[in-house]
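Sharing a chain and its predicted structure for anyone who wants a worked example. Both blocks are below, sequence first, tokens second.
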Amino acid sequence: MNTIIDRFNNVKSIINNNNVQIVAVSKTFSFEYISPLVDFGHIHFGENKVQEAHSKWSEIKKKNKKIQLHMIGKLQSNKAKVATILFDYIHSLDNQKLADTLSKCENVINKKNKYFIQVNVGKEKQKSGIEPEILDDFFYYCSKQLKLNVIGLMAIPPADGNTEKHFKYLSEANQSLGLKELSIGMSSDFENAIKFKSTFVRIGTSIFGSRT
């Protein structure tokens, strides 16, 4: 069996929970390389650049309507329209300007996407995300005023040795907002994330191997 399939099945067996969706992070890999996993029947894939995703997935999504594409990287407002058309989930809703733009794009193309609000749990200057102090207000603005379909929170915790603390905060914040989905956990920490009720784990290296 293909090595990618073996790795995918290994991740799936570790998770051992049908309520957890594996987003196979296919960024930087060619479609030819990841196609065995598509042929295997997996439908959730993650990309972090709109242009790369568009060239890789546009035609594939027309042929395979089951594919669910996840935008997991920083999304610039000027790429919002293309992203709204191409992606089904956006994990990086992180500022008001982007929220406003996405709302307008949805209205123009008559499509409702699923959104995760990205939270900057470590308040790191180099990372995107809403600061925890304004999360409640931002969620209210996006979901109530703009009517965006916010389904959960997302974060990339800092490498400070406090991953469990950050996951615990996100899980509790998610619950307090009444959100059902939670996007935390990558190849290095997805087992931990599941303990804190993650429902979407973003797995790249553990499935596709190291990026060059």
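Comments welcome. The first strand starts at residue 21 and ends at 25.
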